[in-house]
Amino acid sequence: MADIVLDKVSKSFPDGTVAVQDVDLEIADGEFVILVGPSGCGKSTTLNMIAGLEDISSGELRIGGQRVNDKAPRDRDIAMVFQSYALYPNMTVRENMAFPLRLAKLDKETINAKVDEAAKVLELTPLLDRKPANLSGGQRQRVAMGRAIVRQPKAFLMDEPLSNLDAKLRVQMRTVVSRLQKQLGTTTVYVTHDQTEAMTLGDRVVIMRGGAVQQVGPPQELYDHPRNLFVAGFIGSPSMNFLHAAVQDGGLHTALGDVPLGDRVRRELEAADAPRELILGIRPEHFEDAELVDDDTRRRGLEFEAPADIVESMGSDKYVYFTVEGEKASAAELEELAADAGAADFAGAGGNLVTRLSAESPVTEGQTRRVWFNLEKIHLFDPSTGRNLTLHEGRAAGALAD
Amino acid sequence: MSINATPTGTDIAVEKTERQATVPVQRGGRRRKAPLSENKKAERRLGWLLCAPAALVMVAVTAYPILYSVWLSLQRYDLRFPDQREFIGLENYVTVLTNEFWWTAFGVTALITVVTVAVELVLGMGLAIIMHRTLVGRGLVRTAALIPYGIVTVVAAFSWRYAWTPGTGYLADLFSDGAPLTERASSLAIIMFAEIWKTTPFMALLLMAGLALVPEDLLKAASTDGATAWQKFTKVMLPVMKPAILVALLFRTLDAFRVFDNIFVLTAGGNETSSVSMLAYNNLIRGLNLGIGSTMSVLIFITVAIIAFVFVKLFGTAAPGSDDSERR
Fold it and tell me: Which residue range or ranges hold the ABC transporter domain (chain A) (predicted)?
């Protein structure tokens, strides 16, 4: 077991493409870190560099305090789990799991004992003599995990290990992975494009975009205090609503009404190079049916009226989609997020506001409804840089903060 | 390790139902013969109709000649003495199989087959890996590697013959004092060399298709599992490539056993370098002995069939077009 340190690690290809740029990351011993981002963000390349499957162009990688840039994968003492499981088709489950131990030239008895124990942990004992072709997806996945844990390596590297499983099995395996990691206490780096996996599994999440780290932190911190537009839009499901906001006379003019600004944000916007247009971000759960808000709470927010397009009742609460007039928020980050979600060419999604209201709300489809939203929870972003202007010393303070 | 994480019970249950769902399908396969519906009958009829032209052509160009040569092999039939034609049963086979020329040719053919296929496999594998791994100038490398295979065998054989002829050839002067094509050992070596030079690219091409079957992730997994390059090759690549290797070996062995043109041009079978095909040709076409020649052809056919049988049945080579997933 060991810590993993990435010190300004970069990867560039001979044709000039930069896949990963100056990644600084310190992964503590026993920590479970998730690398997440849209496809092509460099997360898998970063993992492969840690594994030694890709050369590091510049920077330094240390595992357990030792520089390993030039070490072959086999000398790094790490185990990797692949999305495709990468089981050896000609070997039985037992032989697959024993393979790394056999290469390490352990004696037969030790190998058998270790394989049996790992098989017990993963409930693979009755399958030990089967070939991978005769296993289901979930079983193959467990064999791949078994092959990783038998060696007790310094670190586990997992490259989207659950992505090939069907939705139900994925949720179950998620808990298996999580429990296994806690019990073994082995440093783990886990790559995924699924933000739910990222939020639920890791001690810390690293959000990447275009080869660069956007933000590192515990899942809740990323959710509550996104450093920029990309992080805000990537984390959360349904994702944050983004609205165009124009700076006017010390306030903001938006499709939801005029939003007053606190002193701190206003001071920031008075600077000569400050943007005149902003993007207002607000999460679905920070809306509420105005009828259900008590007076004390009401004062901390604003109200607006809009027609409800669609009402999705989830039982515990209601997702209500409103159409609001006004200019669409636009920024490079938002386009990228839409492209990743596959909605880049689907203009129909624009202008819609997703809200999560209490289940008690009597809202019906087609009805124009009065909706309240929490000003303390809104985020303001600079469209050109994506920076979160409401963030103060790493904490989001809403629009009204002094 | 002091761990006892267990996947939840439901997890297992899900997989069980998954498995059960597939079982009845396999069982139901061929057991009961329900009367065919009109639709099924029509489909079957269409199937036969679609196969018919190909089947007819096959019968015309392969089945008929084979049966005809079997028929000829059972007769005393020499075109020089057409009056003596008569049915003699297996006498021709006794004649051939007790003849030392046949066994010498058989030995030569077997030697050429074993040596060339073995060397081609090793060289072809190397070439295939080079072609597979090349990143720069991929097209050029592959084209260059395939040139020998693109040259007509007879043309190539002639150029080798000239190259090894003292006086006109550069190779003869370089490597030998005498005339290498006039001695048995060196002749055989040159024949095998020409064969290997010519067909290694073909082997490489077949093996490259096999290399493409090895998933990149598998090699990465082996690397992190601690395998050296050689261990990755022997323990991961070779087993995964086994079906492709066997098919390549089968094709090449069958081909090599019928070696003819190189020998015909290089030595014309002189100094006991005849292959069985050469011998059959000499008897059938030159000697006009249809009975003996056909007997040899049939024997070659039987040998080739045995080779194919051994490959497919004993080594588990997937017959082209069949699904090999069950064999693993």
Answer: 4-235
Count CA within 13 A, CB hemisphere, residue B271: 15
> Reduced to 3 DSSP states, what percent helix, strand and coil does chain B have, rounded to the nearest 5?
75, 0, 25
pTM: 0.77
Are residues A190 and A32 in contact, defined by beta-carbon separation less than 8 angstroms?
yes
Return d(Cα A68, Cα A64) in angstroms, integer: 9
**Chain A environment of B5 (Cβ under 8 Å):** 121-122, 176, 179-180, 183
Tell which of A123, A154, A162, A170 to mutate to test the B interface (max B CBs under 10 Å).
A123
**Nearest residue to A231 via CA among A246, A244, A243, A214:** A214
A395 near A358, Cβ under 8 Å? no
Contact A184 B231 (CB under 8 A): no
Q: A152, B1: Cβ pair inside 8 Å?
A: yes
Per-residue confidence in pLDDT tens, chain B, 328 aa: 444 444 444 444 444 444 444 444 444 445 556 677 888 899 999 999 999 999 999 999 999 999 999 999 998 888 888 888 888 888 889 888 898 888 999 999 999 999 999 999 999 999 999 888 877 788 888 888 888 988 998 999 998 888 888 877 788 777 767 777 778 888 899 999 999 999 999 999 899 988 988 999 999 999 999 899 999 999 999 999 988 899 899 989 998 998 998 999 988 888 888 899 999 998 888 888 888 999 999 999 999 999 999 988 877 766 554 544 444 3
Per the CB < 8 A criterion, the answer to whether B272 and B108 are in contact is: yes
**What does DSSP say about strands A204-209 and A32-36: parallel, antiparallel, or unpaired?**
parallel
How far apart (Å, rounded) are the C-alpha atoms in residues B257 and B279?
13
What chain A holds in terms of domains, given with CATH numbers, is 4-229 (3.40.50.300), 233-396 (2.40.50.140)
CB-CB: which of B7, B218, B224 is closest to A78?
B224
Q: Which CATH architecture has domain B91-204+242-314?
A: Orthogonal Bundle (1.10)
Chain B residues in contact with A72 by the CB 8 A cut-off are: 223
Task: Say which of A74, A86, A120 has its CB closest to residue B226.
Answer: A74
